Structures
1.
Amino acid sequence: MRIVIDGMFPAGGRFDPAFVPAGWNATKADANVYREVIAPFCRGCHSSFESTIPNTEDPLAFATAESVRTRATSVVDHICGSGPLGMPTAEITTAQFFSSSARAVLLQWLGQPGACAPAIDAAP
Ligand code: HEC
């Protein structure tokens, strides 16, 4: 959370809504997934996951590309049909997620391309 806030509101600098944290900036593909998927559809909730261990990021805070890549199976399960517990678990966010290219971008990046339906019925 702190990394995101400090990055978007740099001391003495201008607001930077396109900020990409270092953990997502190793490759262009990682940074693209961060901008197109994580920031708009996951970060609002996931950046608030806090580790109980001092000076460690909770892996569910999605602070690094690696933290998402290593749980690829879980991500695919949660996005593609895990019922009302599916992600992104908010109705409007889910509707926008599935009507944008974000799902495809994320699944492609995880090496698991293919169609999948929203986990919850988010038809407007
Ligand atoms: C509205 C808030 C919210 C949004 C938006 C959201 N999540 Fe979550 N997510 C949660 C919460 C809360 C949990 C923990 C649920 C639990 O522990 O049962 C969770 C859990 C998960 C898990 C399971 C974690 C594990 O143990 O592997 C995955 C995967 C996940 N989210 C992926 C995503 C992805 C990818 C996005 C964006 C496309 C997203 N979520 C958007 C709130 C959200």
2.
Amino acid sequence: MTTEAESQHTKDTNKPGVPHGMPVFGASGRRIIYDEDGKPCRTCNTLLDFKMVTHAQKDPKSSGSSTNPALSSTAVSAMTIPMKKAAETTQYAKDEPPDVEQLGKASWSLLHTLAARYPNEPNAEQQSDMGQFISLFAKLYPCWFCAKDFKKYIEENKPVLESQEKFGRWLCDAHNSVNVKIGKPKFDCNLWRQRWKDGWDNVDDKLKK
Ligand SMILES: Cc1cc2nc3c(=O)[nH]c(=O)nc-3n(C[C@H](O)[C@H](O)[C@H](O)COP(=O)(O)OP(=O)(O)OC[C@H]3O[C@@H](n4cnc5c(N)ncnc54)[C@H](O)[C@@H]3O)c2cc1C
């Protein structure tokens, strides 16, 4: 049975990039992103929207979204018989492939942590390595429409790699450009070191200096 929200979402399907008969918007209110082959892009949509659009929304009891590596008793009881057999020998949590938000959060963690570990005075090779990494990251990022915009951002705002502080702030600005694009608040880049390197102890004192 189609819910009212779903039928509402499937009404306007004559948009570019939206395959015929497929929804334009997801349950989250975000636009559904489709790959070139017309299939919904798993890493460009939220899991909720992806499931809605693929009609794969399952009983939440069996969704297995737990981050606990051991299987919960609920998850185990909801398993199909073949999965039960597998679980007798292996204890895998039924984590789903990342959606756009999980992928983004994990990726920003990696990027900011790289900045936190970047040398204060990087030599030419270290600067070149990081420049190449950022460029390849933008090229290969698995959410294609995120990658497209991030590549453009990098072309217009070349990574500043002369020191840890400069790179950390450049990355913070880059992250803020995405925050603004998707309607999230900007992060105060004076605090990037506290968030990603030093921790928050005595942060008020540090800000007064
Ligand atoms: C390169 C890239 C491009 C992306 N493009 C898109 C896109 O086009 N559309 C889309 O929907 N999603 C995009 N994302 C995902 C998006 O940025 C978020 O990661 C996702 O929405 C999850 O957001 P979040 O609220 O968990 O926090 P995130 O934005 O993932 O941030 C994680 C943590 O970083 C800290 N933080 C926030 N802002 C900054 C900052 N400026 N500097 C330093 N630390 C900060 C905060 O503590 C926050 O909790 C992109 C991700 C990446 C890595």
